[in-house]
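Entry 14. Structure prediction run on the chain below.
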Amino acid sequence: MRVTSEIVTACVNEKYPASVVQKATKKYFTTLKRRSRLQTNNKLPDARKKQRRLQRKHHKLQNRKVALSGSTTLTQEQKEKFSSILRIEYMSSEESAEESGEDEHMGERLKVLLIHTLPWRNPSVNEMFQSLDRKSARKRTSRAAEMCRASATEPSSPSGFTAKPPPSCPAWAKVSDC
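Output returned:
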């Protein structure tokens, strides 16, 4: 009830417009209903895993966009060309996995991100994305770099995953046999 009284107080004091409070409240209860439904169907762990994967893709996309806009080695024409494919459909999938080694500090198994490259993506696009990832990594603070998980690239896709290029994919961004 504390949250409700804070919302009402903020709304009364006109800190937030009533429409914003109404949307936030609706989203809150929709989320509660969804979480409850997932728990009763025992699908909450799978939904969280899927959401984490999607969130990693969005985070990677944002980092690449920032790196591209701040790049000084690319011409404006190249930036426009690559910005046309900086969309979520072009991001590789990542999934958590445990490595065989152990963390020196905690004595736990190391967790890494397996990056499943998209088989239809042109190698030049892969190279550009790797370059943007390196530029993004250089700009991280020491704390952010410390928190990043190690990653390992796997050329194959996850089992049961058939990747096809998006319908709007330009010809230069995909392998010729797609």
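Strands lie at 93-102, 109-116, 150-154.
Filed with the rest of this week's runs.
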